[in-house]
């Protein structure tokens, strides 16, 4: 056995012990999928099912570091360059490395064995619409690295290339990525599964007038010269790789927090997010120090398909959060909270997405409570509960309404309904109430420590919960109660009913208005927060008549609301009732906002309520401005309706 093999095996045991819970090592019976009765211990199965959304043979070989050297070619809408992957053998007999690739143009593959590079035979498998293709590389003995020369496709689903006209500044192009849940493989050949964590380094070559940033260490005051280097020394799953290139500025909020944005919105962004340091402090106090160095945010062009994305050290945000009154900054609290739940402790499979999103929604709500008080936190939970009920009612099958998602979900997106978000949050709220904050807060703090930089399953959490919280207070909850939340469909009856006095007052006024006792102009809305408006609009009856729409619109110009959340709910109601004056402003909204949470539902509602043609015409005009992920999703919505 050569010296090199010994080294790789030594590294391996370190890697498995330190960097991943996966594959689970605990013995004992496998946790039941839909357990009617739970085993006394929530043992992690000794063989977790492999992530079904990856081709990677990460049970045999693990990539532990990726080095990228890429030219950013705006004219061709292509990233062109080289990826070098460092390998660790889990199975020392493995001779084939399987990577995920999607829409990549592979030019050459080489392997490094004993310090010498040589061409490695490879094949690219058939293209699956969800998973892309398997890149199978035959390795020479003791290969420790592979080097792949490749180009991305202009249609890469994880990258959006914006022309200068599609930016606010109109002068320079813009590029940004969105890799969660499985689009990193459209940027580079990788083990694109949350079960595998990598460190990375990267060089990006861009036009010299542009700035490039990544989800890594970077200097916000660095020179703009078109040559950028990045280093991410902490192991992260591939979906947290991220990059953005464009003409944007930076404004510091404190010594380690700041915001990047196009000029037109830079000051407004820094003002909107000025409470971020207090949010960080709140989470530090609850769950231990922020572990990632800097925390910056970038406000992207309006086509960014999400509210926010928790790319480490550099949260990506939609400009629709800049409402002017900090009313939508729970999204920042949420993305920041992912620095603990999701980025530090990561779901190892999308079936366990609630470990990311539910924990994060819970932490988010605690932050809102700390900064703005119980009333706001309760209002947000109350709105969340409405959304949870809606998603549970609309679920395609009951299995999708339990926290642990079924093994056969068709796409990871299926794991990102309100079941994982609000459902997960309310489950943790339930535990908090039963065990008390004095026990629950330190428990969560220890959980984040225990599993820091690891990828884990629901069962890993339950085991840890059982021995570290439940064991100390066995009467606090029953197995049946836990089981109902995690494995049984539907909303458990142990869920809290958030009761907001402010909302009760809004509802009382709403009744008077609906009964015709007061006109819309007489509603006492001056002090209403965005949340109170959302409650008012969410709860008006579905059969509101057109005069009532006109009354509200006349009094508050809701069709032109600058607050995207309010506008969205108003449009949904108006579409369902056929209130036509909304169509022109809705057209403008759909042309200028690409945030999926809004536009997917709007298109679906338009189709459902007899405006398919109108919607198709708007989509035809808006399409090229949408992110590829959104384009594909909306095409699916139209196709489904046919
Ligand atoms: N990680 C998600 C965004 C995401 C989910 C990207 C699934 C790809 C697949 C992010 O943290 C998120 O949840 N964003 C929310 C905001 C939050 C306050 C609920 C959003 O984008 O609306
Ligand atoms: Zn999230």
Can you describe this structure?
- By secondary structure, this protein is of the alpha+beta class.
- The chain folds into three domains: 61-247, Sandwich (Immunoglobulin-like), CATH 2.60.40.1730; 272-486, Neutral Protease, domain 2 (Orthogonal Bundle); 509-641, Peptidase M1, leukotriene A4 hydrolase/aminopeptidase C-terminal domain (Serine Threonine Protein Phosphatase 5, Tetratricopeptide repeat, Alpha Horseshoe), CATH 1.25.40.320.
- The protein is built from 18 helices and 21 strands.
- The strands form five sheets. A seven-stranded mixed beta sheet has the order 5-4-8-2-1-11-13. Strands 15-16-17-19-18 form a five-stranded mixed beta sheet, covered by helices on one side. A four-stranded antiparallel beta sheet has the order 9-10-14-12, with no helix packed on it.
- The model is unreliable at 1-47 (pLDDT under 50).
- The protein binds ligand BES and zinc ion.
Tally of distinct domains:
3
DSSP strand tally: 21
Low-confidence stretches: 1-47
Bulk shape: globular
Instruction: Determine the number of helices (DSSP H or I, runs of at least 4 residues).
Output: 18
Radius of gyration: 25 Å
- Please give the order of strands in the largest beta sheet: 5-4-8-2-1-11-13
Helix content: 25-40%
The helix/strand class is alpha+beta
The ligands bound in this entry are: ligand BES, zinc ion
In this structure, how is the largest beta sheet organized?
7 strands, mixed
Return the CATH architecture of the largest domain.
Orthogonal Bundle
The overall average pLDDT, rounded, is: 92
> In percent, how much strand structure appears in the residues?
15-25%
At the fourth level of CATH, the homologous superfamily of the largest domain is Neutral Protease Domain 2
The CATH topology of the largest domain comes to Neutral Protease, domain 2
For the terminal residues, how far apart are their CA atoms?
Answer: 62 Å
Highest CATH level, the class of the largest domain: Mainly Alpha
